[in-house]
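FAQ: What does the model actually see?

It sees only this:
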Amino acid sequence: MHKKLIIPALVLILALALIITGCSASDDEATTTTDDGTVSEEPIKVGANFELSGPVATYGADSLLGFKMAIDEVNEAGGVLGGRMIEVIEKDNKSDPAEATAAAEVLMTQNNVVLSVGPATSGNFRAVIPVAMENQVPVISSSATADDDITVDTNGNVRQFVFRTCFTDSFQGSVMANFATESLDAKTAVIYADNASDYAKGLATNFRKQFEENGGTIVDEQAYVAGDKDFNAVLTSLKAKDFDVIFVPGYYQEVGLIIKQARELGIDQPILGGDGFDSPELATIAGASNVNDVFFSNHYSELDESAEVQNFIEKFKADNNGEQPNAFIAMGYDLGKYVVDAITRAGSDDPVEIAAALAATEKFVGVTGSFSVGDDHNVIKSTVVIELQNGEQVSAERF
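And it is asked to produce this:
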């Protein structure tokens, strides 16, 4: 009789144990039990969708380098949300919008990231927006500066899951026009823009508008296409004109060649541009001796003497064989800290709650300056105009 009672009792105990174990697992999905029986916190997965190869790989690679530097600092300090590490899942979009879209799909539907950073350029970032909106996973770029169809759709609706931490093309173009008239006393200008780039066209449009509003005259406007190598014919025609400055919005690959060929033709007027100038390759392509009286708008300058900037520079140099961090590295670093700040304030790894925290950011302090996020998910921040002489930064003026 006693033996018959033992079996049902054992079954009941085992059933209760399974129920309790099941409840524990569902109550804390962020923990796992390792082989040695210890409990560890699951990492928080974030995507990094960057241009690591292709025509603008330097922008993506530098952005990722800065981003990972910030995340490593956070993980070394104990992580977030009670000790959870942040795991960065990297994807190379090959500087191509279709590849960027495919990478976003994998990150959000297979890797289950809570947010994704990048791409670095506006066209590639624009390509991941539909994926983010469909999957309700935040995407943030630190350098997608295009004015149109980024954080706000064509109907004027703010995109809940789309953010950026950089200023816009219209702001850059206007700043450079004001700099030309106020700091260089320019009355006349020519524009030589990349006609294949929304980025360059946006800067050109707003430079023209602001320069003319300031009382200046655009003497001539010419276009090139990304990938062009020989600019001598257009530059020769421009040399014959009377102008004070030349505005060349575009990326460093072509801009470096334009600067080189312009200086070799004897065009010695100041050459102005946007943050696409910011690459160590610019002076290499142009030849350092040709990179004189060159000015461009940027998000950050190594000449900033604030303790925060100088500490960042020294730490980066110590970890990277003395290399000087450029603006894309600095912007990537601030992007990492911005992401961590939002996750911490959200108190959650839920993408919707993280998006709300990103949108509510106020007075975030970074190495590229402080900013708050506006209602349109664009940041409110200043910019800096950098002067290059012999390929080196010699001055920086904040606007």
